[in-house]
Every structure is written in structure tokens, then in C-alpha cells.
Amino acid sequence: MFGAVGQSSAAQTAGGGLLVPGVPRIKDVICVSGCAKIRASSLGGMIQVSGTAMGSVELVRFAGGSRSVQAKPTDKGSSSLLVKVPQGAVTGRIRVLSATGSYSSPSTQILEIGPPPPKQDSPLRVSDARTSPKVAYQYGSRLPRLDFILGGGQASNDIRIDVVSTKGSVIASRTRLDVPRGSSQRFTWGGRSSSGPAPNGRYRFVVRSLDGTRAIVSRRSGETSAPREPDPFSFSIYGYVFPVRGNHSYGDGIGAGRGHQGLDVTANCGVPLIAARGGTVYYNAYQASGAGHYIVINLAGTRNESHVYMHLAKPSPLKVGRKVKTGQKIGEVGTTGRSSGCHLHFEHWSSPGWYQGGTFLDPTGPVKNWDRYS
User: Fold this and answer.
1) Could you confirm whether domain 12-114 is CATH 2.60.40.10?
2) Which of 3, 2, 8, 4 is nearest to 23 (CA)?
3) Which CATH number does the domain 249-373 belong to among 3.40.50.360, 2.70.70.10, 1.20.1250.20, 3.40.50.300?
4) Which of 370, 371, 374, 373 has its CA nearest to residue 249?
5) pTM for this entry
6) CA dihedral defined by 5, 11, 14, 16, rounded to 10 degrees?
7) Which of 97, 99, 129, 195 is deepest in the core (most CB within 10 A)?
8) pLDDT for 59-71, tens place per residue?
9) How many whole angstroms separate alpha carbon 247 and alpha carbon 249?
10) What is the CATH number of domain 124-238?
11) Distance between CA 143 and CA 88 in Å, rounded?
12) How confident is the model at residue 257 (pLDDT cuts 50, 70, 90)?
């Protein structure tokens, strides 16, 4: 269910050349089964602990009556683990212990321990499910959205909708109370986990009853067979999109024998340009001796890293201070300023941004990666 155990990015070299895994850090605690709420479990229920260096965890410590109680993970990977809530556990924060004897700090979340949730006489059913778009982007104008009809269950139901990674980890979860049977439901995910923007990759929506039991899936109302491909619950999300929306090739890169500070993407004049990542317009100007019409966007979720787009065909219509979505049109390919042909000159600057104290970063690898998937 979870990926292979990997070395922590915080690993340090000890004497003799051995790698000592970093101290585990808990970012979130979510109930997966036997749940009364997202962070409320019964004894014997299953919880997911996510964070860093989870692959090194040997024991999970729960609050107890007179003393803490411990349990071994049943499944673990580098970023999350599963563990059953042991007998004797009570409401409180949890900690994890690594193989090297390092305890994490207590979780910021409090795990409630209580009686098991009542069993549902009739299981939940989901029909007419559809997820769109199938490819979405962080801070984009179109975020992943699940539409479905809820059937089965009681006349009124408490449900949860999880976003699950390909490794089976619950990335985000929402509850909805008193949902009428037969009602149409819509859930939109903003692309964030408990620790920030979710990593690039494929995900699925999973509809469950509040105790963690998955709803039975039908193709259409009243039909009980499993859905055919494509999976109506799956989608992909990425942090960036390739900005040139037409046929293109690559021109000069960094240096180019003349101190060239950026990556050139050649395309016909007039080809649309879109924001590779959303953010806020920091500068929109013209420079006859160099950049021509250009726009600078301070990027959302990056502490003000910047993207710079140069040689636009005409001024971008976006004013300074304007909020921009990933994928939103910002202009067109041109050859204004000091330019020998139609192309986009693209720059990436570190935090706190372009001529705000940041430094130039080579965008070549990231841009070509965006080109491959978008």
C-alpha cells in the first residue's frame, strides 16, 4: 500500500560512514477506519501518521491512562505509516520513535479516542461520478472537482471525501454531515495537504462513510457494477504548466557566450503565453534596449520567487498587483525590444524575487519537465 522505505532527506553521516536517519517529524494524524471523525478513532481503529522520516519509525506512542501505550506500525513508507490504536490508548497527542531511538515532538493534532461508530444498516453508494479536469495545476483557475450522486445509507448520512495518493496515503480529507440520500454532491480540492501544496502526481477521490468504510461505486444511478475505465475518481495535479501554448523549440540557454540570463523558447509571434504558476504581478513594463514588453510575476506558495516573461508582442493586459491563476493568459509571443526573432525569454528568480533580493536560477530543467507533462 505504501512505497518502499527511503532515506530521510535529513540523513546525516555518522562515524564509520553509516547514515543515521533524521528525527521523524509528524505533520498530520488522520483516522482511516473505525472513525467517529477525521481525528477521532475507536480502540482497534486504524490511523495514518504522515510526516518526514516515517520509514524509520519503529513504534508509535499514544497517550494512556497512567502511562503512555505503544504500537508497531502495520505498514510504512518514507512519508506516512499506518498503525492500529492499541488497548489502553486515550485522547491525546501522539509521538513516534525511530530505529535509532529518536522521538519526534508530539503531534500538533489531538487524536480523540472513543466508542466505535454505529454500524450502518445500509452501505453508502456512489453513482454518476465524474472528476474534472483530469489534469489540474496548483493555484489554477480549474481545480480538481468530483461530482457524484449519493445513494444507499440512511435518509441522512455523515460522509467523508478523501484525496488519496497512488501509494494509498490520505493527502486531504473533508467531512459532510447530514447529506440526504439521493442528493447530488460536489467536492473541489484546492491542491493542498496538511503541510502545504501537494506534490506533483496522480490522485484519487474516495468517498466513505464517516467510519472509513468505502462507498460502493456504480456507473449510473441504480447500477451496481464497477465503473469502467477511465477511472471517474482519478486525476493528476502539478505545480507548474508549460507557458508557451503552441508549436515551439528551444533556442539559447544560460550563457550562450554572451551572458544570456534565461531560457529562450522559440515560437511564432502571436502564440498565447500563460502563467507557468499563479501569483501576483510585480512588474509590467517595456524596455526598448532589452526585454521589450515584459511581465514579472511573484509566485504563489514560494515566498516570492519570480518568473519573468520577456519580448511579448504587446503589453500584457495584467496590471501590477493583479492576482494571476496558473494557466491564465498573460500575453503573446513576440519579438519586441532587443530580439532577433519571435520567442519567449524566460527567467526564474529565487525568493524574495526579481530585483527584490533574489538570485537568478537556471530554469532549463524545470521548463523542459513542464513541457513533457503539459
Assistant:
1) yes
2) 8
3) 2.70.70.10
4) 371
5) 0.81
6) 50
7) 129
8) 999 999 889 999 9
9) 7
10) 2.60.40.10
11) 42
12) low
